[in-house]
Amino acid sequence: MVIPADQPFQVRSEQTSPAPELVCRILVVDDDPALRQSLPRALARNGRKFSESDTVAGAIALLEREPFDLVLLDYRLPDGTGLAVLDWLAQHQREEAVIMISGEDALDAAIGALRGGADDYLRKPYHVAQLQRAVESALHKAALERANRAMSQRLRTSERLHRYLVESSPDLIFTLDAEGRFSYLNPRVKALLGYDRNVLMRRPFTTLVMPEDVDRIATLLYAPVAGPGESFHVELRLRRNRELLAGDSPEWITVALTGIPMPAREDGRRGGGLYGVARDISERKRAEEIISFQAYHDQLTRLPNRVLFKDRLELAIAQAQRRTGALAVMFIDVDRFKLVNDTFGHAEGDMLLRGIAARLAGTLRRGDTLARLGGDEFTVLLPDINGPQDAEVIARKILDSLSAPFPLSHGDFRATASIGIALFPRDGDGAEDLTRHADIAMYQVKRSGKNGFRFFDIALNSHYRERIVLENDLRTALERREFELHYQPQISLTQHRVVGMEALLRWNHPNLGLVSPATFIPVAEEMGLIGDISRWVLEEACGQLARWREAGHNDLRMSLNLSPHDFDSQDVVTMVTECVERHRLPPSQLELEITESMMMQDAAGVAAKVRGLREAGLSVAIDDFGTGYSALAYLQKFPVSTLKIDRSFVRELEGPNTNPIISAITGIARGFGLQLIAEGVERSEQAETLRTLGCDVMQGFLYARPAPAAEATAWLYDAPDASALH
């Protein structure tokens, strides 16, 4: 069938093979709309995608946007000839196959198209089958060319990569011919052996082998081939050209040689040559020695580390058990070491640790072991001691050795240490137990003031076991709703009523009953749980105040304590103000208590947060005022609203002139216009003296002990005297 060039056509597609995985893109460029529509139908196959254009410019624009596999290109176009598209493809080194379709009778058009890079030329009119064959042929040819180019590129890349790897290898790589002579050497030979590779070419490999190893390598080189892919591995010594190597180079080096035979001769011997790789294992052996040292020693002080210390301790325990002897383990922690790191940097800290290690080592006997566990922690093994007195003598020598200052770049530093001692067999019969018990004893020294030593006793172990149980229970106390608030009233003597409540946290432990905050709050702070607990206290206290206000007690003030760790958080002000807003409380009715020590330790950071709380309308009190001998300058920096007289001053109060500190505190409160509250009032004479000194609001056992909310609610309706509230 012949299809005229100006008539559209429709044919049924032939049966094709399953759809290819890749999409074949075909661009039809013709100014005849009918042909642009009919050609895709005639050439349709699974995986083929067609685009079209009616001008040279449009075709080039499409080609710039994406590549095509085939272009069906009309010769005559409104803005030029298809030769312009061929020229563009050639200039841009494109790989599209092109079939030129034209109604031109002149032979020059076909010659120009083929010279321009067209893969085929069809004249209009043409058979559909003719077009389909031309398209299939062009696509097949293009696919073969692409595959060939890809394969050639892979081969070139592989060859370059292989050559680069061989030439750049840190190993000596070489090939031997059938006579055992060098046919190739990589540049590594000069650095490794001191020979230029050109000098060694065509020389026998055995000329580089030390005489003692020649027979062994010759046997391997010419032994019968066991099978394809066989290789051998051997260590041998190779001569070095010491004249061309710098320094005191050894006469020979030991290498690990891997030999891979090339195709063998007909007689089955290694006559085809050899591919060899030789690695200098002297570096590996040195590295193994370094790794072994690092595995058992601390890199900073060069002392034994935890692993080596444990090995030596276990050996010493075994020997002591056989001889029924004794030994001691010391756990040493440098006091205030973090101060050096934080102030002068880690380089100065490392210098100090090396100096301390040297002094500790100087106090020990031959046969003792000093190890560094990490950070500022050291352990000492004292084998063959007669009793605790021997360990005590060495502990005192260690403390004395640290008395002289350590010279650092920024000045002298006087170091002290806390030492815990555990004895075998009294304090344990295993390495883990002895080390752990010495550690426990050391921490007790830390808590007792540092710079000393202490022997382990069983009571310490019991204490630490209780501490671990307490920590585990504390982690789930919030989830189990074991916390509760008790409230203690604050009484105004002039108003004869309760003006405030202090919320006090209690832990209702399922087994231990009510646990004092003094017991679990420090643990919660160390564990990082205090933030969640403080949020719970704030929410619970604000909720209770809101309920009391609904009952008509609108001028009641709620006071509660925040942990110093709460003020480390940047959002403490937001946390408090959002809680107050959520419960619709007047901010002035909530008073937050901070400690005097917290105020003095971080004046700038805490002052900013206190200022934010005060600007939000909340009251802020300094709890236990006077115990830290606060400077008046801090009261100027901190916009607090209330001072609380500590119970330790109230306890010793016997008359109006017996405690000048209280007189001073009342004067300070008046001078700064601050409210004043006395806590810990237990006797009526204390209350009378405080009233005489100008303190009106008080709290203590004289009026009421802390109690749950239900009992505290009853106080709001009772008279504020001891008989009514106690």
TrEMBL record:
SMART domains: EAL (SM00052), GGDEF (SM00267), PAS (SM00091), REC (SM00448). GO terms for molecular function: cyclic-guanylate-specific phosphodiesterase activity. GO terms for biological process: cellular response to nitric oxide; phosphorelay signal transduction system. Keywords: Phosphoprotein. Residues 232-293 form the PAC domain. It comes from the Bacteria. The modification 4-aspartylphosphate is found at D74. Residues 158-228 form the PAS domain. Residues 25-139 form the Response regulatory domain. InterPro entries: Biofilm_reg_signaling, CheY-like_superfamily, EAL_dom, EAL_sf, GGDEF_dom, Nucleotide_cyclase, PAS, PAS-assoc_C. Residues 467-720 form the EAL domain. Residues 325-458 form the GGDEF domain. It catalyses: 3',3'-c-di-GMP + H2O = 5'-phosphoguanylyl(3'->5')guanosine + H(+). PANTHER family: BIOFILM ARCHITECTURE MAINTENANCE PROTEIN MBAA (PTHR44757:SF2), DIGUANYLATE CYCLASE DGCP (PTHR44757). This is Conserved hypothetical signaling protein. The lineage of its organism: Bacteria, Pseudomonadati, Pseudomonadota, Betaproteobacteria, Rhodocyclales.
